[in-house]
Design brief:
Elements lengths: L1 H7 L4 H24 L12 H15 L8 H20 L3 H24 L6 H6 L2 H16 L3
Helix pairs in contact: 2-3, 2-5, 3-5, 4-5
Protein backbone atom coordinates (compact mmCIF):
# COMPACT_ATOMS: atom_id res chain seq x y z
CA UNK A 1 0.00 0.00 0.00
CA UNK A 2 2.81 2.51 0.61
CA UNK A 3 3.80 2.10 -3.04
CA UNK A 4 0.25 2.84 -4.16
CA UNK A 5 0.19 5.99 -2.03
CA UNK A 6 3.55 7.06 -3.47
CA UNK A 7 2.40 6.49 -7.04
CA UNK A 8 -0.95 8.23 -6.66
CA UNK A 9 -0.07 11.02 -4.22
CA UNK A 10 0.45 13.56 -6.99
CA UNK A 11 -2.20 12.11 -9.27
CA UNK A 12 -5.97 11.87 -9.05
CA UNK A 13 -7.26 10.97 -5.63
CA UNK A 14 -10.29 9.33 -7.24
CA UNK A 15 -8.10 6.69 -8.88
CA UNK A 16 -6.49 5.95 -5.53
CA UNK A 17 -9.96 5.59 -3.99
CA UNK A 18 -11.11 3.23 -6.76
CA UNK A 19 -8.04 1.05 -6.35
CA UNK A 20 -8.55 1.03 -2.58
CA UNK A 21 -12.19 -0.02 -2.95
CA UNK A 22 -11.17 -2.77 -5.39
CA UNK A 23 -8.59 -4.10 -2.92
CA UNK A 24 -11.14 -4.09 -0.07
CA UNK A 25 -13.64 -6.02 -2.21
CA UNK A 26 -10.94 -8.42 -3.39
CA UNK A 27 -9.95 -9.06 0.22
CA UNK A 28 -13.53 -10.03 1.10
CA UNK A 29 -13.73 -12.45 -1.83
CA UNK A 30 -10.37 -13.93 -0.86
CA UNK A 31 -11.42 -14.40 2.76
CA UNK A 32 -14.73 -15.95 1.71
CA UNK A 33 -12.95 -18.41 -0.58
CA UNK A 34 -10.42 -19.41 2.05
CA UNK A 35 -13.06 -19.79 4.77
CA UNK A 36 -15.13 -22.03 2.46
CA UNK A 37 -12.02 -24.18 1.96
CA UNK A 38 -11.43 -24.41 5.72
CA UNK A 39 -8.21 -22.40 5.64
CA UNK A 40 -7.43 -20.16 8.64
CA UNK A 41 -7.42 -16.57 7.42
CA UNK A 42 -6.03 -15.01 10.59
CA UNK A 43 -2.34 -15.49 9.82
CA UNK A 44 -2.39 -14.59 6.13
CA UNK A 45 -1.39 -10.98 5.40
CA UNK A 46 -3.34 -10.80 2.14
CA UNK A 47 -6.57 -11.46 4.02
CA UNK A 48 -5.93 -8.29 6.02
CA UNK A 49 -5.45 -5.98 3.07
CA UNK A 50 -8.66 -4.11 3.85
CA UNK A 51 -7.16 -2.96 7.14
CA UNK A 52 -3.96 -1.95 5.39
CA UNK A 53 -6.05 -0.03 2.86
CA UNK A 54 -7.80 1.84 5.67
CA UNK A 55 -4.42 2.79 7.10
CA UNK A 56 -3.28 3.91 3.66
CA UNK A 57 -6.41 5.99 3.20
CA UNK A 58 -5.75 7.68 6.54
CA UNK A 59 -2.15 8.37 5.51
CA UNK A 60 -3.34 9.71 2.16
CA UNK A 61 -5.85 12.02 3.87
CA UNK A 62 -3.15 13.22 6.25
CA UNK A 63 -0.67 13.86 3.43
CA UNK A 64 -3.31 15.83 1.53
CA UNK A 65 -4.14 17.85 4.66
CA UNK A 66 -7.72 16.55 4.69
CA UNK A 67 -7.84 15.27 8.28
CA UNK A 68 -9.35 18.16 10.18
CA UNK A 69 -10.75 18.73 13.63
CA UNK A 70 -14.05 19.89 12.15
CA UNK A 71 -14.69 16.29 11.02
CA UNK A 72 -14.06 14.79 14.46
CA UNK A 73 -17.67 13.58 14.76
CA UNK A 74 -17.35 11.75 11.44
CA UNK A 75 -14.26 9.95 12.74
CA UNK A 76 -16.14 8.95 15.88
CA UNK A 77 -19.09 7.77 13.76
CA UNK A 78 -16.77 5.59 11.64
CA UNK A 79 -15.29 4.08 14.79
CA UNK A 80 -18.71 3.44 16.31
CA UNK A 81 -19.95 1.90 13.04
CA UNK A 82 -17.01 -0.50 13.10
CA UNK A 83 -17.69 -1.36 16.74
CA UNK A 84 -21.38 -1.98 16.01
CA UNK A 85 -20.49 -4.16 13.02
CA UNK A 86 -18.09 -6.27 15.08
CA UNK A 87 -20.60 -6.53 17.93
CA UNK A 88 -23.43 -7.50 15.59
CA UNK A 89 -21.26 -10.12 13.89
CA UNK A 90 -20.26 -11.57 17.25
CA UNK A 91 -23.82 -11.71 18.56
CA UNK A 92 -25.90 -12.37 15.44
CA UNK A 93 -23.63 -13.19 12.54
CA UNK A 94 -22.90 -16.71 11.49
CA UNK A 95 -19.41 -18.17 11.57
CA UNK A 96 -18.90 -17.55 7.85
CA UNK A 97 -20.01 -13.89 7.97
CA UNK A 98 -17.96 -13.30 11.10
CA UNK A 99 -14.77 -14.58 9.49
CA UNK A 100 -15.31 -12.68 6.26
CA UNK A 101 -16.36 -9.30 7.67
CA UNK A 102 -15.09 -8.88 11.24
CA UNK A 103 -11.66 -7.62 10.18
CA UNK A 104 -13.29 -4.85 8.17
CA UNK A 105 -15.27 -3.84 11.25
CA UNK A 106 -12.10 -3.77 13.32
CA UNK A 107 -10.36 -1.75 10.61
CA UNK A 108 -13.14 0.83 10.62
CA UNK A 109 -13.19 0.97 14.40
CA UNK A 110 -9.45 1.48 14.76
CA UNK A 111 -9.26 3.72 11.70
CA UNK A 112 -11.87 6.03 13.20
CA UNK A 113 -9.96 6.11 16.48
CA UNK A 114 -6.70 6.92 14.69
CA UNK A 115 -8.31 9.75 12.73
CA UNK A 116 -9.95 11.07 15.90
CA UNK A 117 -6.70 11.06 17.86
CA UNK A 118 -4.73 12.58 14.98
CA UNK A 119 -6.83 15.76 15.02
CA UNK A 120 -6.81 16.28 18.78
CA UNK A 121 -4.88 19.31 20.01
CA UNK A 122 -1.38 18.43 21.19
CA UNK A 123 -2.31 19.74 24.62
CA UNK A 124 -5.15 17.21 25.06
CA UNK A 125 -4.55 14.61 27.77
CA UNK A 126 -4.78 11.70 25.32
CA UNK A 127 -2.30 13.38 22.97
CA UNK A 128 0.16 13.90 25.81
CA UNK A 129 -0.14 10.24 26.84
CA UNK A 130 0.44 9.08 23.25
CA UNK A 131 3.47 11.34 23.00
CA UNK A 132 5.12 9.74 26.03
CA UNK A 133 8.51 8.12 25.47
CA UNK A 134 7.39 4.53 26.21
CA UNK A 135 4.49 4.70 23.75
CA UNK A 136 6.62 6.43 21.12
CA UNK A 137 9.17 3.61 21.44
CA UNK A 138 6.44 0.98 21.24
CA UNK A 139 5.13 2.67 18.08
CA UNK A 140 8.58 2.46 16.50
CA UNK A 141 8.97 -1.26 17.16
CA UNK A 142 5.33 -2.33 16.73
CA UNK A 143 5.64 -3.46 13.11
CA UNK A 144 8.58 -5.64 14.09
CA UNK A 145 6.57 -7.14 16.92
CA UNK A 146 3.68 -7.80 14.52
CA UNK A 147 5.90 -9.44 11.91
CA UNK A 148 7.74 -11.67 14.37
CA UNK A 149 5.03 -12.43 16.96
CA UNK A 150 4.22 -15.87 15.58
CA UNK A 151 7.80 -17.03 15.83
Amino acid sequence: MPAIIYIFFRRKASLFLYISLFIVLLTHFMRADLVRKGIDINLFTLTRLDQLVFGSLIAFLELKGLLRRQFIWIYLAISIAGLIAVGWLELRGGAFAKEVFKHTGFGLMYGGIIMYVSVLPHTASLSRILQSSPLQYLGKISIGIYVWHNL
